[in-house]
């Protein structure tokens, strides 16, 4: 889920990058904004983009898997 959320994340203010670190049973993901990005400086709220990424990741999951979580 963390990997698909990071992959679905989209910043409209910079050419961001994301990384996914996966170990057995654990997947960590983070998004890195460009240094001048207003999201990084706190001028623009990052919550809407994060919400859209989670919704897109959930929508991309097979229905059966969604029901189990
Ligand atoms: Zn950004």
Output the keywords.
two-stranded antiparallel ribbon, alpha+beta, binds zinc ion, 69 residues, single chain
Mind explaining what this structure looks like?
- The protein has 69 residues and is an alpha+beta fold.
- It has one domain.
- 39% of the residues lie in helices and 20% in strands.
- It is built from 3 helices and 2 strands; from the N terminus they run αββαα.
- The chain has helices at residues 2-8, 47-60, 63-68, and strands at residues 17-23, 26-32.
- It has a two-stranded antiparallel ribbon.
- β1 and β2 form a beta hairpin.
- α1 packs across α2 (47-60).
- The longest helix has 14 residues, at 47-60.
- The protein is globular, with a radius of gyration of 13 Å.
- The model has no long low-confidence stretch (mean pLDDT 84).
- Zinc ion is lined by residues 11, 13-14, 16, 33-34, 37, 39.
Which assembly state applies to the chains in this document?
A: single chain
Helix content: 25-40%
Cα-based radius of gyration, to the nearest Å: 13 Å
Strand residue content = 15-25%
Strand order of the largest sheet: 1-2
Bound molecules: zinc ion
The computed structural class is alpha+beta
> What is the mean predicted local confidence, pLDDT?
84
Major sheet details: 2 strands, antiparallel
Give the topology:
Blueprint: H1 2-8, E1 17-23, E2 26-32, H2 47-60, H3 63-68
Antiparallel strand pairs: 1-2
Helix pairs in contact: 1-2
Bound molecules: zinc ion (ZN).
Zinc ion (ZN) is lined by residues 11, 13-14, 16, 33-34, 37, 39.
Describe, in short, the structure shown.
With 69 residues, the chain is an alpha+beta fold.
